[in-house]
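Fill in residues.
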């Protein structure tokens, strides 16, 4: 088989479409990791359905609106009746190959919204506004930029979608999160934000790495051609700039948060990777590596300040930072292209002697698209809010959307390493006024008399997980053979040394601990205590605590033995 230029271009576009589609997995993991376990199934479902809903919507109407300049329908009865789109197709690329490439871009814009509105949005409402984004919000602004519309005629440059895809999604996310209101417990009565930690940083990290990998298809394949030396050279520069901006953004955010909070912020640094990727997307083909590095450094600082602004000043609760990543950095990256463009594929930017005309076009494009999207999505959200409602009830939010929206009892719902804190200003859900004595059957148990057997003592030791093995061996060494070990969460914080999560001081936090339970009779209690203190002591806060209780009786279930005999594990 002889490879022609047209077949090479088609394969390149289809490969890019596959990579951009896989970004859905990245968004799913990232959003799930940065939110609480009880909403994981809901988030995964939304990321699946915005692609599945958006695909037929964009096929039937969106693509036609974006590129048809006439008929909105791409050909839903028969491909033969589809409008002639040859004027917008890359060289030799078939209609349907280009259509799937554009479809996955549309789905990316729609999925951005789910993260900012996570943990309190009705699933039915989400499906409706996701469809609206794919039907007419994204296609109309996309037509202005990529479909031959007025912005493209002015020379507006957004190579792979900092504005067309990411800022559109970011503006929708911002309006949606504002209209929803914050999650229960996010702000105290004085309006001070509280940190609500994500449940799985591993999920979030894997999601970011998937997105980073797929971004090479998002930006690189947007050349929609590999049929010339010029196209291959451009793709190489695009790959290099895309990677460089993200890496520099991460380095700058790590250092900036280290200085600002006293420690490098993990989740914010992962957000910085996405901020760099989003920001460079507009001008990845038009700036030099030096320009990409400088832009990445700017994104690395701006992402931190933007997250803090929306949390602390605007009071817009964005669990994953999508507004800052996609909205702010998408806007900023498009504008910065007006400064750093070298003139190779666009007009020259301000820093390369091009004057302010190109920069003005970039600013005009950003402002006009943001205004259009803000108005239309506000109308969509207002209609949904007045009809079926945007937000779930308070008790449903507290219970988690996995259970209340999907009946998901067998996965993550109710299984959180970090249980939710119900703050004092959160609504209390009361089932009724039934007295406890009526609701819970009570059975009286006679007290085991002191004269009927030896004294038993329970010793409960709570310590760091890292000290468990040493503690266990020490207990065995003094004759303790029966122990129960539990993983628990301890609450506490050192005064004067607050920790930070995404720029917000973490209040008394629940940290992983180990609880070791021992019941002794012959082994002296003081021996156990002194041995434990010797093993656990470091002199630092968090060494642990030891609790001592009297035990009335011990009963071995298998044999029915009681008292001292029940403690002996012999046949």
């Amino acid at each position: 088989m002889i490879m022609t230029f047209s077949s090479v271009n088609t394969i390149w576009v289809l490969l890019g479409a596959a990579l951009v589609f896989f970004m859905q997995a990245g968004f799913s993991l990232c959003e799930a990791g940065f939110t609480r376990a009880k909403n994981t199934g809901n988030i995964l479902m939304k990321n699946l359905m915005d692609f599945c809903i958006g695909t037929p919507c964009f096929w039937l109407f969106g693509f036609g609106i974006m590129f048809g300049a006439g008929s909105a329908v791409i050909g839903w009865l028969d491909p033969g009746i589809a409008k002639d789109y040859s004027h917008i197709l890359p060289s030799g690329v078939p209609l349907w190959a280009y259509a799937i490439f554009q479809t996955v871009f549309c789905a990316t814009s729609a999925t951005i919204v789910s993260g900012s509105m996570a943990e309190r949005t009705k699933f039915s409402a989400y499906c409706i506004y996701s469809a609206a984004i794919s039907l007419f919000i994204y296609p109309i602004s996309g037509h202005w930029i990529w479909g031959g519309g007025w912005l493209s005629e002015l020379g507006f440059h957004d190579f792979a979608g900092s504005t067309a895809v990411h800022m559109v999604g970011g503006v929708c996310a911002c309006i949606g999160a504002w209209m929803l209101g914050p999650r229960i417990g996010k702000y105290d009565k004085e309006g001070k934000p509280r940190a609500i930690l994500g449940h799985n940083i591993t999920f979030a990290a894997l999601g970011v790495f998937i997105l980073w990998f797929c971004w090479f298809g998002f930006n690189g394949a947007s050349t929609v051609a590999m049929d010339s030396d010029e196209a291959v050279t451009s793709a190489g520069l695009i790959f290099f700039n895309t990677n460089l901006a993200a890496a520099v953004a991460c380095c700058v955010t790590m250092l900036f948060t280290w200085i600002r909070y006293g420690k490098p912020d993990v989740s914010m640094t992962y957000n910085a990777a996405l901020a760099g990727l989003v920001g460079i997307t507009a001008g990845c083909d038009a700036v030099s590596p030096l320009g990409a590095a400088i832009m990445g450094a700017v994104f690395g600082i701006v992402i931190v300040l933007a997250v803090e602004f929306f949390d602390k000043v605007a009071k817009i609760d964005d669990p994953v930072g999508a507004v800052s990543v996609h909205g702010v950095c998408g806007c900023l990256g498009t504008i910065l292209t007006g400064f750093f463009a070298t003139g190779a594929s666009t007009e020259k930017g301000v820093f390369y002697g091009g004057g302010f005309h190109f920069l003005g076009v970039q600013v005009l494009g950003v402002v006009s698209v943001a205004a259009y999207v803000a108005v239309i999505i506000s109308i969509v959200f207002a209609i949904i809010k007045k009809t079926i409602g945007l937000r779930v009830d308070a008790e449903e939010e507290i219970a988690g959307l996995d259970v209340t929206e999907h009946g998901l009892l067998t996965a993550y719902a109710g299984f959180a390493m970090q249980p939710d804190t119900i703050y004092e200003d959160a609504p209390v859900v009361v089932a009724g006024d039934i007295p406890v004595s009526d609701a819970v059957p009570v059975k009286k148990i006679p007290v085991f008399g002191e004269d009927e057997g030896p004294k038993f003592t329970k010793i409960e030791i709570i310590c760091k997980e890292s000290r468990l093995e040493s503690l266990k061996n020490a207990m065995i060494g003094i004759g303790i053979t029966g122990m129960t070990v539990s993983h628990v969460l301890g609450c506490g914080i050192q005064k004067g040394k607050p920790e930070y999560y995404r720029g917000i001081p973490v209040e008394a936090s629940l940290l992983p601990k180990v609880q070791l339970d021992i019941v002794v009779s012959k082994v002296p209690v003081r021996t156990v205590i002194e041995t434990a203190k010797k093993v656990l002591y470091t002199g630092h806060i968090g060494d642990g605590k030891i609790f001592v209780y009297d035990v009335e009786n011990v009963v071995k279930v298998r044999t029915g033995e009681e008292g001292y005999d029940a403690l002996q594990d012999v046949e």
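The chain is about 55% helix and 5% strand.
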